Amino acid sequence: MADYIYTMEIRLTPDQLKGVNLVQDVARAAGITLYLTGGAIRDIISGFTIRDLDFTVQGNPLKLQKDFERAGAQIAGHEEDVRTLFLVLPGNVRAEVGMARSEHYEKVGKPPVVAPASIQEDLRRRDFTVNAMALSLNEGSRGLLLDPFNGVADIEAKVLRVLHNYSFVEDPSRLIRATRFSARFHWPLEERTQQRYDSAKENKYIEHISRSAIGHEIAQLAHEDDPLSVVRALEKEEFLKVLQPHWTTAKVDTTGLSQLMKTRQQIVDLGYTVDPSAAVMHFLTAHLSDKDVSDLRRQIPRKDLVEAWRDIEDHAKDLAKRLMGKEAAIPSRTWNLLSSARPEMILFLAVTARQQAVAQKIKNFFTKWRDVQKRIPLPEMTELLITPQLPDYPKIARDVFMLLLDGKLRSRTETLKFLKPFAPPPPPPPPLPRRGRGPKAAATAPTPVAEATGKPVKGKGKKAAAAAAAPVIAVIAKAKPEPSGKPKAKPAKAAGKPAKPARKLASAKHPPKKATAKKAAKKKSPSKKAKKH
Ligand code: ATP
């Protein structure tokens, strides 16, 4: 039997996994039964990117708002009628927590009658078999997959199949969803589903789509990996105009959009997490009138997306202005400015910046300046005992990086000259072995210790020293922008060390005199003469 918890754990990103645990903890504390459902399960099993987390609870999630906030989630909106809460979990993870419900359609074109229900009933109201599965996150049954319509088999067969013959009649937004999923996954509709789809189209059932479904489907486009191909498919099926009557692919800034997706991929490849959804909406609607754009925005239920989309141009302009000003006069300052900016803004500006200087600074930030890290002499730093054990280590490492960035340390010799005064006093020599007893004293040089593991590093010399000093990379990498856009904690704290008054940063030309502690230690340690006696 498949181990779905294991599959989930290896397929989710670390932040998504933390998000699952957060929601699970809140639900458990409230005594509410919780399932991971819908697209998240489909993507976990099929191997596609997991874009967001859909949870279903047997109970009312709207009552848990305060609990979620206390646990670190942000509330990004809610839908009262279907008791659904939109969350942004730490690390920019999008999530939805909905009440398990039944939907009963009394009249074509009218919204369903919604009632709280069991998870089994909830799965029956879903759109396609591949979306009608639930994974239990509850004690006692954790890992149990509910798959009443054989969704796993349809994932294997790569087909989209509705759950019953009236699916498109009951909710015509499923026509749009079928088109969207088919364009995204390149999965065809199963034969009978295709027949129902064609007849629903012919009978113009789409005219009965609800306003809230339109808003939901507009927002979904923002999160597509290839939004243009989905928009083209919707246009071909004449559904794009259902979302907005004036929307066509001619209204899309296709060059901007493809540049955005390309740049996004490059940034992701560098290890950043960036949510391009607001920028995607900007380019998808670039040539629509202001009125049409506000009309689109009004219908989207997730207010975080609407705000980010609305503000994206102004925020990018602000950032561009700062990048042209004194605040970014030298590389180290530019680095700090970009490190504290939201990756989403940097991405958007990278694609839209009109000033050559701004574009160049962003390019340097992602390429040339990152490579400067490689010039930090890690092995020599370890030999000097400048290792992560030092409380000042994050600051020293960062200062070296900044001076290298600004070209104030031009050679290895200059860098070492700068570093030497920060070297702590050497440890006291080991006690001399008593003559005639035990093996000969071992090597006198201290064994490098790897910070990450706390274990001695095997071997000697530069390689071992480099292994021990590896965490310097982590210190500099702290300059990476936070997904949330919040500035990082101060280095000393970030390294989990007590914050100490920082040593004054010496300029490269005038390094500080040797640490007085070192001198004192020297005085105290027995002189060679004394040892002879
Ligand atoms: P995506 O990868 O685009 O986010 P998704 O399947 O997660 O895909 P959502 O729109 O987030 O899509 O919906 C979550 C789940 O809710 C779906 O997987 C499906 O089970 C159910 N659902 C959403 N819209 C409908 C609908 N119109 N009819 C029936 N079920 C729906």
List keywords for this structure.
binds adenosine-5'-triphosphate, alpha+beta, seven-stranded mixed sheet, two-stranded antiparallel ribbon, Beta Polymerase, domain 2, 533 residues
Helix and strand arrangement:
Elements: H1 4-11, H2 14-30, E1 33-37, H3 38-46, E2 53-58, H4 65-70, E3 74-79, E4 84-89, E5 93-99, E6 101-104, E7 113-116, H5 119-124, E8 134-136, E9 145-146, H6 151-157, H7 167-170, H8 173-185, H9 191-202, H10 211-221, H11 227-236, H12 240-243, H13 254-269, H14 277-284, H15 290-299, H16 303-324, H17 331-340, H18 343-352, H19 356-366, H20 368-371, H21 378-383, H22 393-405, H23 412-419, H24 461-469, H25 471-477, H26 491-494, H27 516-524, H28 528-532
Parallel strand pairs: 2-5
Antiparallel strand pairs: 1-2, 1-8, 3-4, 4-5, 6-7, 8-9
The chain binds adenosine-5'-triphosphate.
Adenosine-5'-triphosphate binds at residues 38-39, 51-52, 54, 126-127, 131, 171, 173-174, 177, 220.
Protein architecture, described:
- The protein is α+β, with helices and mostly antiparallel strands and 533 residues long.
- Among the domains are: 157 residues, Beta Polymerase, domain 2, CATH 3.30.460.10; 98 residues, no CATH class.
- Helices cover 49% and strands 8% of the residues.
- Strands 3-4-5-2-1-8-9 form a seven-stranded mixed sheet.
- Helix 8 crosses helix 11, helix 13 packs across helix 18 and helix 14 crosses helix 16.
- It is globular, with a radius of gyration of 29 Å.
